[in-house]
């Protein structure tokens, strides 16, 4: 049996391929948008997974440093440590910094921790050059995507920090690169007042405007084997009157509270792109059908049934959708690495998009089918 779709596509092969490539680029953007959302989820969990903390103890009635301001005294870690079931407890800080590079300022998130303590946020598997922090002052470990090299010196605040290590794939929940400094340096940067502020306060009659007790943004702790994490967390809440979150609860705060709005925006934009792709395919098929209306009329005049002509339209539409999907995958894999933030392309998302596009192609073919059914065989005689 003659395959009408094959004959028709062969006749306009170049135009058909170029059209599929154009629609494919649109579908590639759809995959990239889904990948951006997946990347946000991965970024949100990087630091939590590297810390391997079971509990986060933060300022009372706050969601913790990833969601809002949180300050607690550093010595709270000692009170946490004596709670039954707690194995380790340390103080940690987080703050946004603007580092001055050779080309342009770079926005980073600085993690402050005690390099001599028992919990280290630097994952050795992510360290690609240099070493961990070894001193209390003036050393920094940077991410490899911010442009600083091993041994380079970076001015931060009133001090100069030397790059002693370089990590890969370390980002904050917002996708900004992470840098690591000692807790004492971080406390000086975040909590100590500048000389101008101190002079201004003294002029106002404020005798001491500095922080007497060292502060941190959170206390993180691990739980001993055999103890229930939720029970230990509840014990800390009742004893120390602080907000306490387990690792899973902290992940929920990151993914639901911080990423939820962005995910809705990305989801809406993705849905719009899919609808636009469907409309474009429908318009293309409709235009292709209009271009061969005389041929369709001739086919109907010589007795070719409508079902055979309709089959041609459906086959062409499905093939266009399939080729567009292939080109879209190729396009997305070619460009995703050029995005400034992480883009994660998953096979499951590609298959889901494939199903959607095939269904959308069938729906789009209905416009061409309607035109075929209404075609008048007598139009073939009129020339």
What is the fold's blueprint, element by element?
Elements: H1 4-11, H2 13-51, E1 55-58, E2 72-73, H3 76-81, E3 86-100, E4 105-113, E5 127-130, E6 139-143, E7 153-156, E8 159-167, E9 178-182, H4 183-191, H5 195-203, E10 215-216, E11 218-223, H6 229-240, E12 243-246, H7 247-258, H8 260-291, H9 293-301, H10 306-335, H11 347-373
Parallel strand pairs: 4-9, 6-8
Antiparallel strand pairs: 1-11, 1-12, 2-10, 3-4, 3-11, 5-8, 6-9, 7-8
What does this structure look like?
With 383 residues, this protein is of the alpha+beta class. It has two domains: 159 residues, no CATH class; 182 residues, no CATH class. The chain is built from eleven helices and twelve strands. Strands 1, 3, 4, 5, 6, 7, 8, 9, 11 and 12 form a ten-stranded mixed sheet that branches. It has a two-stranded antiparallel ribbon with strand order 2-10. A hairpin with a 2-residue loop joins β7 and β8. The longest helix is centred in the first third of the chain and has 39 residues. The radius of gyration is 31 Å and the shape is elongated. The protein starts with a helix and ends in a 10-residue tail after the last helix.
Give keywords:
383 residues, alpha+beta, 2 domains, 12 strands
How much helix is in the residues? 40-55%
Tell me the number of helical segments per DSSP (H or I, 4 or more residues long).
11
Sheet-strand content, in percent, reads 15-25%
**What structural category characterises the helix and strand content?**
alpha+beta
Shape: elongated
How many strands, which pairing sense, and closed or not: the largest β-sheet?
A: 10 strands, mixed
Unreliable stretches: none
């Amino acid at each position: 049996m003659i395959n009408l779709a094959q004959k028709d596509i062969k006749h306009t092969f170049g135009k058909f391929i170029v059209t599929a490539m154009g629609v494919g680029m649109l579908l590639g953007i759809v995959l990239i948008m889904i990948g951006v959302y997946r990347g946000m989820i991965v970024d949100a969990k990087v630091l939590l997974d590297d810390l391997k903390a079971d509990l986060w103890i933060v300022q009372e009635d706050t969601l913790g440093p990833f969601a809002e301001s949180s300050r607690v005294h550093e010595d709270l870690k000692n009170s946490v440590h004596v709670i039954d079931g707690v194995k380790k407890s340390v103080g940690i800080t987080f703050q946004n910094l603007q580092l001055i590079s050779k080309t342009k300022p770079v926005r980073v998130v600085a993690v402050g921790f005690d390099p001599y303590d028992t919990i280290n946020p630097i994952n050795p598997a992510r360290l690609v050059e240099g070493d961990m922090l070894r001193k209390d002052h003036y050393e920094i470990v940077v991410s490899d995507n911010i442009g600083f090299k091993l041994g380079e010196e970076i001015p931060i605040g009133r001090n100069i920090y030397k790059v002693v290590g370089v990590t890969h794939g370390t980002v904050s929940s917002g996708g900004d690169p992470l840098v690591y400094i000692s807790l004492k340096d971080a406390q000086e940067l975040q909590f100590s007042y500048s000389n101008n502020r101190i002079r201004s306060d003294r002029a106002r009659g404020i005798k001491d405007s500095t922080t007497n007790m060292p502060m941190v943004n959170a206390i993180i702790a691990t739980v001993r084997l055999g103890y229930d994490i939720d029970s230990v967390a509840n014990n800390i809440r009742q004893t120390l009157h602080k907000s306490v979150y387990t690792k899973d609860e902290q992940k929920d705060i990151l993914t639901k509270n911080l990423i939820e709005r962005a995910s809705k925006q990305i989801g809406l934009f993705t849905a719009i792109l899919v609808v636009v792709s469907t409309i474009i395919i429908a318009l293309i098929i409709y235009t292709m059908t209009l271009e061969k209306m005389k041929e369709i009329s001739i086919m109907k005049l010589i007795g070719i049934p409508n079902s055979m002509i309709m089959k041609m339209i459906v086959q062409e539409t499905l093939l266009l959708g399939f080729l567009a999907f292939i080109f879209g995958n190729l396009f997305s894999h070619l460009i995703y690495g050029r995005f400034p933030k992480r883009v994660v392309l998953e096979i499951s998302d590609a298959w889901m998009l494939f199903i959607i596009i095939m269904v959308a192609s069938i729906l789009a073919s209905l416009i061409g089918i309607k035109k075929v059914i209404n075609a008048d065989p007598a139009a073939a005689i009129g020339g």
